[in-house]
């Protein structure tokens, strides 16, 4: 039976007992005019304890999916806790980058006024495509041309930022742009170059079942856009 559509005159059910926590969070996001696409971070719209409540909610819905797939989760010892495992995996592991704040990044002043190209990589990318939620596994290289005002951040922090951005359902083209925006905002370099190469399991495990193809894309910012020599230097230093 279909549910009757709720009347638009009713106030949002934010305080009611029994309102799913996802509804409360969504209403908060909508009230702020905030986007909540798969690859957006919504951590600052979650109240304390709500991630745990979301775990219970997603577990219940995953159980319903397993039931609809006619899997005997009561009788089959392998799937007895699968709904909970999958909920935990989505919310606290593979899509954690949606629900937690950005990692703390220690920044140091650029006292030596470094202005030479710095490259870090390959950093491991673990993500999933927004379309099928299939894994996207790959590598990313980041090149930074600092200036005297650039904040120097610890090398490991680039890996932490990559992990935070990629820990959401993504499409590769948007993932590299989000990463570039974040690093530009945090470090304010003269230039930034990012190259990502990844295997998309939605193309190998299923669908066309193409095992060896990878997607490679790049984003260039600042002087990397205007200085072809710098761009070439960066690309030549990335191991083939
Ligand atoms: N551009 C881009 N496409 C992606 C990425 N990840 C997955 N895709 C593609 O997104 C598409 C999803 O399209 P649909 O046609 O709706 O899905 P589908 O019917 O299951 O398609 P098939 O994968 O061809 O079976 C597929 O072609 C995927 O290969 C990505 O990061 N970037």
UniProtKB/TrEMBL annotation:
Question: In its keyword annotation, does this UniProt entry include Hydrolase?
Answer: yes
What this protein catalyses is: GTP + H2O = 7,8-dihydroneopterin 3'-triphosphate + formate + H(+)
The protein's superkingdom reads: Bacteria
The protein's Enzyme Commission number: 3.5.4.16
> Where do the GTP cyclohydrolase I domain residues begin and end?
61-238
A GO CC annotation recorded here is: cytoplasm
Q: According to its UniProt record, in which pathway does this protein act?
A: Cofactor biosynthesis; 7,8-dihydroneopterin triphosphate biosynthesis; 7,8-dihydroneopterin triphosphate from GTP: step 1/1
Gene Ontology molecular function terms on file: GTP binding; GTP cyclohydrolase I activity; zinc ion binding
Q: What is this protein called?
A: GTP cyclohydrolase I
Source organism per UniProt: Allofranklinella schreckenbergeri
The organism's lineage? Bacteria, Pseudomonadati, Pseudomonadota, Betaproteobacteria, Burkholderiales
């Amino acid at each position: 039976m279909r549910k009757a559509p709720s009347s638009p005159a009713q106030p949002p059910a934010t305080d009611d007992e029994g309102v799913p926590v996802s509804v409360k969070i969504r209403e908060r996001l909508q009230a702020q005019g905030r986007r909540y696409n798969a690859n957006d971070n919504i951590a600052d719209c979650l109240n304390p304890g709500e991630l745990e409540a979301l775990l219970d909610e997603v577990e219940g819905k995953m159980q319903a999916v397993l039931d609809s797939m006619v899997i005997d989760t009561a009788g089959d010892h392998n799937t007895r806790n699968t709904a909970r495992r999958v909920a935990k995996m989505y919310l606290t592991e593979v899509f954690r980058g949606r629900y937690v704040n950005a990692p703390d990044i220690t920044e140091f002043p650029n006292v030596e006024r470094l202005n030479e190209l710095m490259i870090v990589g390959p950093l491991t990318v673990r993500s999933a495509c927004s379309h099928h939620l299939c894994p996207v596994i790959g590598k990313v290289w980041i090149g930074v041309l600092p200036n005297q005002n650039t904040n120097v951040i610890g090398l490991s922090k680039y890996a932490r930022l990559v992990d935070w951005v990629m820990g959401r359902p993504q499409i590769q083209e948007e993932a590299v742009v989000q990463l570039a925006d974040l690093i530009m905002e945090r470090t304010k370099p003269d230039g930034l170059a990012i190259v990502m190469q990844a295997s998309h399991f939605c193309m190998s495990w299923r669908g066309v079942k193409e095992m060896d193809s990878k997607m490679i894309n790049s984003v260039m910012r600042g002087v990397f856009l205007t200085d072809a020599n710098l761009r070439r230097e960066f690309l030549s230093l990335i191991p083939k």
